[in-house]
């Protein structure tokens, strides 16, 4: 199949995303104001607590089994690589551009976390439905594609709150500490003379008296406490876990992923909830019905949130270009190398749709949850809207081009 034919196939899903996003942007304008600030907040809460967990549970429970999970074992590794490589590239971008401290956590989040949720759930089934799709029978393709997209969404949700959130939180806390250090330094310089005088007076009180034992005798009398290896390890683990917010780690999407895996993998639970003869099939149908609202609502929220980027400023064009280069040039190029190498060494099967999904995970725009994390950390909120606006605007062209290239490579 030629490049132009594949380009048209790749363009259709992106056009669907653009149209729904444009509707969200229109509804968020002041003139219509159906998705104003308060409405977006309530709709975002519905998506976060109800719609998104529902679509994760329903898709995982229906499409993921123990056999398929064994077959798709490389996907969690692949998604983790996108996060790790993106973080390293973000660190390099920060060093090159000397980004302000309050924007560093935002840059890390935008480069590390891709939109592994609603975009894949739109793009992959839409590609399968196209007449000229290179992925074979549309029904088989749609079933497999939903499994790949659902697993990708679940893994992405877990990694965002278990990896990206703590990293962004550490970066934001570092910036706060540096600001406090600067204030303390000014305060110390003002009181330096007084402190020096106090030090001279205090030194006399620290000198040993004639009746007191010498420092060597005192050290002999007092045993130094010995710190064992286990105590050091415990202290190290306590320090690491101290930076993890377990309340955020077990977000609704994470819990939904766990429930979906259990229902899909454990055969007795699957027979109870999934299938035409399942006694509790009404429960699954209800959850699936709620999940159907997730994709349009998330896409509408993306459009309404992008409107804020038109009204905000304060981000260096070099930073925006750097994030775009990482997400749409460097990461997808590395993704081709990684997936092809994994296929060469037998780590992934010969399924062309699976390989396409793995490559596409490297070419996605930043996750919208990065904006949510920025709001939670109260750092770079307005700048996040600007970065999201430009990255999603470029994604319309980038996703189409990379989808065409990926299909040429795997077809």
Molecular structure report:
It is a single chain. This protein is mainly α. It has one domain (3-179, 242-410): Na+/H+ antiporter like fold. The chain is 79% helix and 0% strand. It has helices spanning 3-27, 37-63, 66-71, 74-97, 101-112, 118-129, 138-190, 192-206, 215-221, 229-241, 246-249, 252-265, 267-273, 281-291, 294-311, 317-344, 352-360, 369-377, 381-410. Helix 1 crosses helix 6 and helix 4 packs antiparallel against helix 5. The protein is globular, with a radius of gyration of 26 Å. It is a multi-pass membrane protein. The chain crosses the membrane at residues 6-30, 42-61, 73-94, 106-127, 147-168, 249-270, 282-306, 318-339, 389-410. It holds the Pfam family Mem_trans. This is Putative transporter C5D6.04. It comes from Morella rubra (Chinese bayberry).
Count the helices. How many? 19
CATH class: Mainly Alpha
Helix-strand string? HHHHHHHHHHHHHHHHHHH
* Proportion in β-strands: under 5%
Please give the CATH architecture: Up-down Bundle
The CATH topology annotation reads as Na+/H+ antiporter like fold
Computed structural class: mainly alpha
Could you give the distance between the termini?
8 Å
